[in-house]
Amino acid sequence: MSAFALVATLISARPSRADPPPEARIAAQQSFDRAERAFQALRFAEALAAYREAAAADPSARFVPIARARAADLEAHAEGDFAPLARLSAVRRDPIQSGDRAVIEALARDVTTFPPGRVRGEAELVIADAWWHRLGDPLRAVPPLEAAIADETGDRLTRSLALGELVSLHRERGDLDAALAAADRFPDLAPATRRELHTLVRRGRLRAAAIAVLAALGLLGLVSLARAAPRLGGVAELPRAVSPPLAVAFSLYLGGAAAVLVRLRGDGDPRPFVWLGLGVLASFTVARAWRLGFGNGGPTARAARGLVCAIGVIAAAFLAVERTDPSYLEGLGL
Amino acid sequence: MSAPRVGDRLFLAAATGLGAAIVAYAILRGVERAFYTEPHPALLIWSDRSAFLWRAQESLYAGGLGAFGGYALAGFKTRVRWLGALIVAAVSALLLQALIAP
To answer: A265 touching B, CB under 8 A?
Structure first.
């Protein structure tokens, strides 16, 4: 029993791995504080050494994860003996300097002398952000963003961020083609953004085609009405001739009943269906006016008229959805 | 052959609408069974979005569209052959749906 008590006393008297000597804990804390001061004062080499010392002196201290993370981050930005990082941080940390035109222009000149590495791309991002958001000159943000994307020595996340910013900038300016060209140059950096842009460009082309089809149909309808009016005995006779009650009722049912169904469901937008009904009525009106203005014609003419008006209905349906709730198009792969 | 009276046209429209609704229901059920799975009814206490009710509503909507088509077709001075074909199609669709996707 006494031997067991002796062993237990010896074990409890040994310092545990989680409980370092008090002097080691104090040394680690002092190193960490020194590292923090050096970091704030842009003396990054000194900060890196002090962070390492802190982690080595007392690996169990609560601040060690922070010290290790800061040391790893500094190691990744150590090119040029920290001179580029110090130059960038001086601008980035000061909100007045980062919005000063002369300071940003000077930083842009200095960036060209930075050695390859992460800091160069991050500096380009800071410059682009200043030109776009703080100095209100988005066009001047394009070259630094392109440089950050093209810099293969930069961090991949930084390059992806730069590409996202460049795409947003082009889209904000309404230049979807430029946004797509940027995303296509670096397809691996932001694949989701690239897919979204391809969808938007495709929709834009389909929208232009749909508008052209409807404009041509509208013009054809007007010419047909002008030719049909004298034959029918005047303009007053046109509405009844080109829009018979059955066609009006069908269009109202097509759009109205579908809109009611969507409303009953409670989670959809009924507007596309209302516009679809109106589009169908317009296409039907054009088809009737065409027949009255140019004659019924043979089977081929009737088939051509039907085909053209069916294309008009498809164009109206596309615009009805695309202009009101494009989320419906995603289900169709458009 | 004389033009059909309005009463006849309305009757034909209603018959066409009914046939179209049945065909639409069978198609909707088949598509739902093939592409969209639904939870077993026994697992649900109550759902305010019963799949059957939605199918029925959408079928009625399609039937309404069919009724307009039937009314328009009935206006032509031709024999109403299409209605027989539609009834055969509706009965076949209903049988197939009941057997394959009840």
So the answer is: yes
**How far B68 CA lies from chain A's nearest CA (Å)?**
6
Question: Residues of chain A whose pLDDT is less than 70?
Answer: 1-19
Alpha-helix residue ranges (DSSP H) falling in chain A: 2-13, 22-40, 44-57, 64-76, 83-92, 101-111, 118-129, 142-150, 156-172, 176-185, 191-232, 238-242, 245-252, 258-265, 271-294, 299-324, 327-330
Cβ pair A253:B65 closer than 8 A: yes
Report pLDDT digits (tens) over A136-152.
999 999 999 999 999 99
Count interface pairs A-B at CB distance under 8 A.
19
For the beta carbon of residue B77, count every other beta carbon within 10 angstroms.
8
Q: What does pTM read for this prediction?
A: 0.65
Tell me what the pLDDT averaged over chain B comes to: 82
ipTM of the complex model: 0.80
Q: What angle do CA A148, A151, A155 make, to 5 degrees?
A: 80
